[in-house]
Structure formats: structure tokens, C-alpha cells
Write a structure and sequence with these properties.
Elongation Factor Tu (Ef-tu), domain 3, transferase, 6-stranded antiparallel beta barrel, 216 residues, 4 helices, 12 strands, single chain, Lumazine-bd_dom, Riboflavin synthase, Riboflavin_synthase-like_b-brl
């Protein structure tokens, strides 16, 4: 489990590709301080396992499913990537619950500078539009962001100067792709509501529904 608060930007030092699999060698500093074999690291929002490491870099494998359904296949040597270690149970929780399991990829439609903010409109897969709402949460390349506006199969987020500097979304241009993870709570709630409806329960939120499920 992650928070979506990027700890640092790493650099891809080497990519060993074989078919639809990759081994990434990533240079980092901050996260190397207490890294262990088998640790989980979110790389551009994708949960990967550390298979080897030194004092300045670590390796992680990318499996075919991840290769096909995330943006990691588009990385090149020298690419910068968002890095976050799995959250500690006794640490401060700042972003939102991010699993590191990518739902799909989106594409940047438009970037607009408004004073000190950067508005980024991102096209999202049609099937996932039901999981977004204004002021809700979304993880883009592993960065926890608040949805500023929703549109025609798109979301717009607003980057503050700190996020634009410390996360790769601030470096990306129109037309580039990003990894998307939609709010896990929204997905669970949608699944739960569909299950209730399939069981021939009343549709939507009703007083009876809330009472039966312990809300009051």
C-alpha cells in the first residue's frame, strides 16, 4: 500500500528487455537509505519488487501483464520516474490509499498555466469514468492528486509548483501517456452497489439500505 506522495525522482540507468518483460535498473538516493531485498517500490505508480540493489541503484522486474497495461514499456535510459516506498504502519498518512495496481493508461490532452498552477487535462478510459468525481482522488503516475474537473472521458488536475517540480507529471507534455489508478474506495463501493442490485435489492442509496448496512 502506498500514499501517492512521491519521495523522489529516480533515473532509469539500464533496461534489459526480453519479449514482453523488462528488468529496470533505477538510480535513486533517498529511498536507498533503508531498502531491502523484496521491498515494494512504486515506480510511476506501478508496484514493483526489489530483486537486487546496491548503495545507489536497485533492480526490478516487469512482467508481461504490467508491460502491456502500463506506461513502463515506453521508458528509456535516462527517463525520470516517480519513486515511493510502501507506507509504514506507524507513519503519517498524507495522500490517499494507492495500491500500485494500475487500472490503465491515459493521455495528456492539454496543459494550461494559470498563475502559479498548471492545469492538466487527461483522457481516461471510458469504462473508468464512473469512478471519478470533482474533488475526488486519483493517482497519476503514482502521484496522489485531487480531481479539479471532470469532462468527456477526461479529468483535469491542478499541479501546485512543488508537485510540478517533484513529480514527473510536471515534466510531461501534451500527447504523452500516464499510468492511472482510480480511487480504490470508489471501485469497492461501485462493486458493492452492483452486487446489491444483482441481489434484487433497491437501487441507489435509501434509508433501508443504509440501515441494513449499519450506517445508522
Amino acid at each position: 500500500m502506498f500514499t501517492g506522495l512521491v519521495e523522489e525522482l529516480g533515473i532509469i540507468k539500464r533496461i534489459n528487455a526480453k519479449g514482453h518483460t523488462l528488468t529496470l535498473v533505477i538510480e535513486a538516493k533517498k529511498i536507498m537509505q533503508d531498502l531491502h531485498l523484496g521491498d515494494s517500490i512504486a515506480v510511476n505508480g506501478v508496484c514493483l519488487t526489489v530483486t537486487k540493489f546496491s548503495t545507489i541503484q536497485f533492480e526490478a522486474d516487469v512482467m508481461p501483464e504490467t508491460f502491456k497495461n502500463t506506461s513502463l514499456a515506453s521508458l528509456k535510459e535516462g527517463s525520470r520516474v516517480n519513486l515511493e516506498r510502501a507506507m509504514l504502519a506507524n507513519g503519517r498518512f498524507g495522500g490517499h490509499f494507492v495500491t500500485g495496481h494500475i487500472d490503465g493508461i491515459g493521455r495528456i490532452r492539454k496543459r494550461t498555466n494559470i498563475e502559479n498552477a498548471i492545469l492538466v487535462e487527461i483522457e481516461i478510459p471510458e469504462d473508468y469514468a464512473k469512478f471519478v468525481l470533482e474533488k475526488g482522488s486519483i493517482a497519476i503516475d503514482g502521484t496522489s492528486l485531487t480531481i479539479f474537473k471532470t469532462g468527456n472521458h477526461s479529468v483535469t488536475v491542478s499541479l501546485i509548483p512543488h508537485t510540478a517540480k517533484e513529480a514527473i507529471l510536471g515534466l510531461k507534455s501534451e500527447g504523452e501517456i500516464v499510468n492511472l489508478e482510480f480511487d480504490v474506495m470508489a471501485k469497492y463501493f461501485y462493486s458493492f452497489m452492483n452486487y446489491q442490485q444483482n441481489e434484487e435489492k433497491p437501487k441507489g442509496l435509501t434509508a433501508d439500505f443504509l440501515r441494513e448496512n449499519g450506517f445508522y
